[in-house]
Amino acid sequence: MSKIAFLGLGNMGLGMATNLVQHGHIVTGFDPSPAASEKAAARGILATESVIDAARNAEVIITMLPSGKHVIDVYTELVTAAEKPALFLDCSTIDVADARKAANLATGAGHHAVDAPVSGGTGAADGGTLTFMVGGASEAIDQAAPFLDVMGARIVRCGQSGSGQAAKICNNMILGISMIAVSEAFALGAELGLTDQALFDVSSTASGQCWSLTTNCPVPGPVPTSPANRDYSGGFASALMLKDLRLAQAAAASNGVDTALGKRAMELYEQFVAQDGPGRDFSAIVTAIRARTLTTETTTA
Ligand code: NAD
Q: Structural domain tally of the chain?
């Protein structure tokens, strides 16, 4: 049994922290949202009034926060206050450069640090079936593994600090681009007289096969469990896809890599989120592509 501080008890953090409690760990938590703290208290998480209170005597400090700035602010506050050596385990999705900066803050103060962003949404967080993409020194990852095992089903060791975030944003750049590709194919297919089912039956077993088609199919019908069958509710929100595409573009720009399709996917999701709002599953972009409400010109860099 370990003493764990869990900071950020929102949609994802609440389920993850609950799983740690259910496996016998003592979890103190902090979230500035009173509603989040209340829900956490009802799940056996000891809700505190500040990050410092939550982290007092903690062996492991887990963050599940909205952005790199949140993570760096919390680390800056905690690296001197936390008992040394603590394990700082950041599961948020943040910029690779911010992840490296956060890890340096922690290790520079004598702690251990691991970045472990997740794949899987709130269902996987609640069910303890997340995939973790993990970066950090191998001894630090060894230390984090028993906690990641409780919160997830799969751990992929990606390399040194920041590598987990790098893997996450590269994967989600593929995902954003592939969802647009699949959506464009359904839009064109329909104009050419193909039914959605006929295109699905061909492409799902041919070279167009991908997760965006076979699992998260953007049109209702061919895959009954995909969000398209419930008006795009309960999936991976378009705003989160846009966030990850922006992180990928920030990393591409700062490393001098030309990712033309990643850039275009980000622009299309920017337009789509402005039109449709942040909340529906990102596959709902097919509705805008079919309705031709997204502009087709590519902006120049
Ligand atoms: P969320 O907004 O529901 O939760 C974040 C929580 O952090 C909020 O409750 C907020 O009040 C809290 N917070 C803000 N500042 C804080 C501070 N200083 N100390 C403690 N708590 C603080 O977001 P979420 O959906 O739970 O996502 C969390 C992270 O996980 C994000 O980085 C997101 O990109 C990533 N992610 C989310 C999903 C998903 O499906 N929701 C999937 C994969 C990854």
A: 2
